[in-house]
Amino acid sequence: MSQPRPPNGPSGAGTNPSVVLPKETSSSHNTTLRYPSNGKTIYHRHLSRSKTAELSQASFAYLFSEMVTYAQRRVTGIQDLEKRLNTQGHPLGLKLLDLLLIREPPRSQSRPLNIITLLHFIKINLWQHLFGRQADRLEKSSDPNALDEYMIIDNEPLVNAYVSVPKEMSQLNCAAFVAGIIEGVCDGAVFPAKVTAHSVGSKEEGEMWPGRTVFLVKFQDEVLEREALIGKG
């Protein structure tokens, strides 16, 4: 006489005991984020709370050098590396524009309405926020065929101070990251532009400012057309 077969367990093996699985937690609790005990996050802070806060240069140097190393491992050449650094800086510029304007006094809390106002905002407000000082100079191209080009000059870019560039990459300028920030500010202010960083300096100036960098700001044609219409008005 055959004996009855035991019921199959969850694994399908007739002789294994059934396994009781724990109930799945709800998706709202399935997260890796950690919140403070008081329930407040960075989004609860007032925007002006960290207005005077500063980051040590040692911390910045470490974070930025690691960021450059991370980008270098994923590119094949100097141009690709500078392009990647530019791309990383662009979203910061978009956010910094709104943050700096919100922190301005109510009377001067308005977006730049022309090219010169925007460039002075970058030279003064943006540089002061990022580096604790203004950029050294602001110039317009004297070339009649390049009326859409402006230059912001920094004699000692902080981003280049702590990055050791090998000889085979001597043409690399890590200030492309700052160029991306400038480009983000221009795009956020609806002055679309292409910004690139260039190492310059004559023989005389090179001894005094070996890391001197020019940020070349080239605005799109639509910006110049709008500027001309405003000038006529």
From TrEMBL:
User: Mind listing the UniProt keywords for this protein, alphabetically?
Assistant: Endoplasmic reticulum, ER-Golgi transport, Golgi apparatus, Transport
Any one GO CC term of this protein is: TRAPPII protein complex
Which Pfam families does this UniProt record tie to the protein? TRAPP (PF04051)
Positions of region (Disordered) = 1-37
> Can you supply a Gene Ontology BP term from the record?
endoplasmic reticulum to Golgi vesicle-mediated transport
List locations, semicolon-separated: Endoplasmic reticulum; Golgi apparatus, cis-Golgi network
Positions with biased composition (Polar residues): 13-37
SUPFAM superfamilies to which the protein is assigned, alphabetical: Ligand-binding domain in the NO signalling and Golgi transport
Q: Cross-referenced CDD domains, in alphabetical order?
A: TRAPPC5_Trs31
What is known about what this protein does?
Answer: Plays a key role in the late stages of endoplasmic reticulum to Golgi traffic.
Q: What is this protein called?
A: Trafficking protein particle complex subunit
- The species this protein belongs to is Triangularia verruculosa
